[in-house]
Amino acid sequence: MPLPTVNLDDRRFDDILDEARRLIPQFCPEWTDHNPSDPGMAILEVFAWMTDLLLYRVNQVPDKLLIAFLDLIGVQLAPPRAAQAPVTFYLSAPQDTPLAIAAGTEVATLRTEVNEATVFSTERAGVIRPPRLSGLYTANTLAQVRLGGEGDTAGVRHDLAQLGLPGYRFPIFQPQPQPGDALFVQLDADHSEHVLALTFGVELAGGAGVNPQHPPYVWEVWQGGVSRWAPCDVEYDGTHAFNISGELILRLPTMREGSFFDQRGYWLRCRLTNEQMHAGYKVSPDLETLRVDARGITVPARHATVVTNELLGQSSGAPGQRFTLLHGPVLHLDPDRDLIEVVTPEGDASLYTPVADFSMSSPLDRHFTFDTSSREVAFAPSILQPDGSVYRFGTVPPQGAAIRMRRYQYGGGAGGNVPARSLTVLKSSLPYVARVTNHAPAAGGRNGQQLEDAVQRVPQLLRTRTRAVTADDYEHLAAQVSGVARARCITPNMAAPGQTYPGQIRALTVPPGQVTVALLPQVSLDDLIALDDPSTDPLSPMTGRIAPERLTLSAELRAAVQEELDLRRPVGTTLDLRAPQYVWVSVTATVRTAHGASRPVREDVRRRAMQVLYSYLNPFTGGPDGKGWPFGRTLTLSELYGLLRGVPGLEVVEDVQVVLTEPGQSDSRETITGSLPLPPQAIIVSDVHHVRVDH
């Protein structure tokens, strides 16, 4: 509960006025008219009102003292945060050579009579590469069988040498198109974030039977890992779903090299979907010519103006020198790029890096601090020691040296959250670049923190984070170590008394004086493995299961957490760091689709059901909130029924069985009925699931 407020003087207006009235007979016995209309009473009311104001101020902590208290505990106002947006640069014409867009290129909104231009700067360089077509293939993604590698498939290869010759053409999909048919386009180089123009020459009305406004296909690029294929943004489709010859413009996401059809390259595909079979192709359109050009590139930009090589002044050689930057508000300094260059009169140059404070700086460190609110740069101070020596908290720039800020950014604020298609002005001309725009709105901009906001952060700052006392302290500090996804501190009273668990699951006993922390190591998406099920689609997005060896708590990670907690735990406590108890479950479900559903539809339902099971029963993405299966949370069969019932296209969930398994041990299996309770240190992980679809 909050501490009670102490009133130095709790008297108010009425109390002061009553006290003054009681003193009248003592000091002014001749004053007998105490009515409110008496001029003397009016004067008393005025003085009572003024005294009440003074008492109110006495009971308040002055803002100056509050700021001093915040400064003593190290609270600083957070600088403004810059909005970010993807910015697309478009070429005036396709180029035969790569074209670079430099980092720090500035784009802005249109300046008006009432609004200044909002300036954004690109965060990294981009290179527009001319694409080269390496291969064209047609295959059905639902009928393919994995041959090996990350995505080797069987399909029809088309002859690029004859493409464009008179009389040569081939069907883009199968002659009788089916869901899953795809045209694979192989590129020889990485065209991540590029704007590509594909110019198709097709037979007139070759795509009869489809709605040109809603074509029954999607364009995707290969991204590898678990995400596999990612959709592209279709900016313009002049082919009207392959009904006429025309140009198709795509904005590609990030690409990764992959292997298909025994060929390595960067892959783009056009895949028929199930959603519009009522308006699907009757026959496949025929392709006669295809040309691929690069029309632009998308790079991230932030609401900031970049300043380079700003001269701050000359060094006096004294410790604790301060200099002020010209522009503000200044965004957070990047310790790798936002450096100060000090050049002596002899021409020797050295670099100084920013730090939060000088507490950990040695006399030889070239450090400086920066105050975002005042824009002040401060160099290392020195302190006189009791023995008469002087301790310096860093190297001081030599006398007469020129001090120059090599780079910093200013801007930010909520004004940078501009809408889509508003960043259309190039601050400086770029060769062969015709225009620029942002297809998505800018987001993330925030004004600098106010004093009232900093006061609200004080309880959280003082509550913990520098010492480990409570279970929440241990969990928070352990999770700050790189490589730890989540942590759970086990206390003696967590397990329910008398609770029994199935299989080899047991509650953990914590002896007095010991702190036990279960550490869940971080697992990347690349560590997920696909199912060894030949009926699954190896080319479609699906969630894989986690390899058991990836969940092992390494000795290096354990030592890193031990070192972090040893600095903050109370003397006399011992630490027991261990991996969670992984409870591997395998779900077997029987579901039913609508009567008469086609095989591709049933396969799609089965794949979606598998995906939701692997996502839900997952220590990183599972659980009701999608943030990972909670430690010690009970799994019930009823929630799995409800989970599967939400799969699109699924009509009835007939049966669900949950089996406890051990990876690599086929004889260790126990069927769960009703619910699966877990002890506090346990967490659920998916083994191999099976879904059977009836109709």
What is the share of helical residues?
10-25%
Which shape, going by the Cα principal axes? Answer: extended
First-to-last CA distance: 59 Å
Average pLDDT metric? 84
Q: Could you give a short account of the major beta sheet?
A: 10 strands, antiparallel
Structural class: alpha+beta
Integer-rounded radius of gyration: 35 Å
| Fraction of residues in β-strands | 25-35%
Number of domains: 3
Low-confidence stretches: 1-5, 144-152, 529-542
Number of helices: 8
By DSSP, the count of extended strands is 40
Describe this protein's structure:
Mean pLDDT is 84; it is low at 1-5, 144-152 and 529-542. By secondary structure, the protein is of the alpha+beta class. The radius of gyration is 35 Å and the shape is extended. Strands 1, 3, 4, 8, 10, 13, 14, 17, 27 and 28 form a ten-stranded antiparallel beta sheet that branches. Strands 6, 7, 9, 11, 12, 15 and 16 form a seven-stranded antiparallel beta sheet that branches. Helix content is 15%, strand content 33%. The chain is built from eight helices and 40 strands. It has three domains: 133-295, Jelly Rolls (Sandwich); 308-411, no CATH class; 471-694, no CATH class.
